[in-house]
Every structure is written in structure tokens, then in C-alpha cells.
Design a protein that fits this description.
Largest sheet: 5 strands, antiparallel
Strand content: 15-25%
Amino acid sequence: MTAETNKIIQRDGLNCKLTSTIESQLINQEYKLKMNEIKSGYKIPGFRPGKVPAKLLDARFGKALLKEIAHEAIQQALNKALEAEKTTPATAPKIDVDEPKLGHELHYNVSFECFPQVDEKDIEGISVADVKINPNKSDIDDYKQSLISKHQSWKSTKTDEPLAQGFKVKTDFIGSLDGEPFEGGTANDYEFVLDTKTMLPAFESHVLSKRVGDKVEKAEVVFPKDYYRDDLRGKKAYFDIHIKEAWRPESQPKVNDILKKMGSEAKTWKEYEPDMKEELQDQASKLRHRIVKGRIVKQIKDGFNLDMPQTVLQSEVEALKKQAKNTNDDFEKIAKGNITLSLVLKKIIDDSGITVTESDLDKAISDMMPGMAQAAQLIAWYKSDENRVNQLRMRLLEEKAMDYLIEKSAAESGESYNIDAAIKLADKES
């Protein structure tokens, strides 16, 4: 069936309406085709197959058939109009249609709430400061130390042995801010090595010189003024800390043993330095992506002022509330930002022709479980669920749209950081 496609969707804010007519000739032709299909296979006592009188078939199937024809024609016209005008319904369309009759044209209205349209000029206006991240000697030294720590062997401390720098400890802790627990302030069986920048120096100071089994109550920790979390910067918190286990480092592993375990043929740090630089450069690239992406997301969420379909907005708010740990969040603002970002990325996907290939899907699925011997079976299992594949496809489309934005919108700024400083910046801005 070929329905009319030249009708324009009328917009009044977010209220959309399609008003059109199905020509009588189209209804008659479709009715005849469908009725002939029924007639050829319909059996009724007293008549041979294909010889049932038309009046009898009209009486038995006519009304239902006309409604089916009307529904198909309206749905087809709506889909083509939505595609042609790049309009996305936010609510289920409500159809107001006359009773379909043979020999008569059919008038109908389709009304629905639609998503706002994103202006291409607003996307063109997205611009954020780019960053240059260049690993330096300090980053190489930190990388070496991380490899040494990773391959370090440990020996349990004696119960009366005071903890010192370089010891590994297992703790439970509960933090409070203004007398109330705060997000990220509580952990059980948390392990860290003293003097490796894992914990704040103020926190570590309450653990140093203590012994296994000790409990520290109301240990005061003041968060730095440049701490990555806005809600904790400069704030004074108190922690109850229980030191459960501790280990002292045994003899430092030999460099060639470390490198051999990593599959390298290098024997010294100097020989391995090119590999470290390559790894750090890859880390720098990912950090640059994370920082610039964060700036773009912030600009879109804060700078785009789109009207929101209330049904969708409230649904997103309720979903956020169910997942939230902090009940003081401005859920409506967060929900509006999330929806706005999705709409901007969808606009880019639609206009730029971004696609996801089967190879893209296969790689993404394989990356979920790297090193799995039976990758082909994993891919086949994953693709057996259409909904699962569609969700992955949409995620990959949005990632490609964001990559497009990053390369297009990042303006050179002169900001330059090493790895350690870039990590702090990324944490601060996230």
C-alpha cells in the first residue's frame, strides 16, 4: 500500500499533529486485493473454495478489513512523515479517524507530543578547550613503581609491629560529613599501600605507626581545596578506621623478573623504556579524550535550553531517583541534561550518516571479554538477542557521534599537562 506522504507535521511547541486524507481509490484497491486473498482460501458449507458470494464475505469481514486498511495506511503515512521531517514522538500517537467506508475518502488526525528539534547552528557552536598531555620523567618513574608494586611480594606483619611507609594495609572505614555518612566515604576490606598516593595524606597519617587490630575513632581529614569532587572540597570529615591486616614488603623483585613476567625480552628499565612511553602515550590519549568529552558534555547539558516532553522528563527523573545514593541531587536538572545530550547525539548521527558495521559490533562484543578463547561463540550468543544488539548498536553510534564532536569542537588552548596532572584534572572536572 502506498499512503500519502506529502502532508506536513504541524508543530505547536512540542505538540505535533498530522492531518491528512486517504483517497477512496486507495481504499477500494486495497480492499479488493485483501478480499480476494480471503476469498481464495475461505471455506463455508455449500460453496466451493473461491466461490463464496462477495456479499457474504463483505458482511462477515468488511468492517474489520476496512479498519485494518485504514490503520496500515495511517501508520505508513505517519512513519514516512516522521522520517521526512526528522521528528521523533515522545508519546504514543493518538489517532482520531472517521469510520472507513468503501467509495469514500477517509479523513484522520494523528496527535502526539514530540521531542524538541536540535538546531544545527547550536551544534556548530560547540567549542571547548583542548588539552595536550605529554608524559614526562616523573610519569615514567611512577609507571616503574606501579610495576614494582604489582609484582611485589608481601609478608604479614606481627601484631605489635608499627605500620610504616610502603606497608600494605587492609581496613574498614566509615566517614561522616556534618555528622552524616557521605557517598564514597565508607568501605570494607579496602587495601592500599602507604605512601603511594592512593589515599589522602591526612587519612594515611592516622594509619601510620598504628598496629593490626587498632581502631581509630573520629580521625579528622580535611579535603584539599582542589579536590576533584566539588561537594568535598575544603570540607572537614571524620573517619572511624579499623586496621584489620597488614603486610610489609619483602625484598624488591628484580627488574628482569618483572619484565619477563610481562612477556618482554627487555632486561633493564632502559631497554623497556620505549614500551613504557608507548603505554603512557596511549594513557595520555585516553585522558585527553576523557577531559575533552567531559567539557563537551558539560557545555551541552548546561548550554542547550530545550523544551522537554514532560512525560519523558518525569520518567527519567523517577529512574534517577531509584538509582540515586544522594537524595539531595537536582534530579530534574540531571534528567534534562541527559535527555538533551541524547538528542544532540541523535541529531549528529542522523545528519552525519554515522553507522555501526557488523565488524564494529563483533569487536565491541569481543572487547567485553578480552582473551576469551571462544570469541566466535560469545559473538553468536550475544547477537541471538535482538534487543541486546540494538542497545549495543545505539551505544556505539553515540560513541562515534561523541568522537566526531571531540575532533570537531576541541580548540587548541595551550593547556599542557603530564599524566599525573591530567589524571587530577580529569577527576576534578568529572
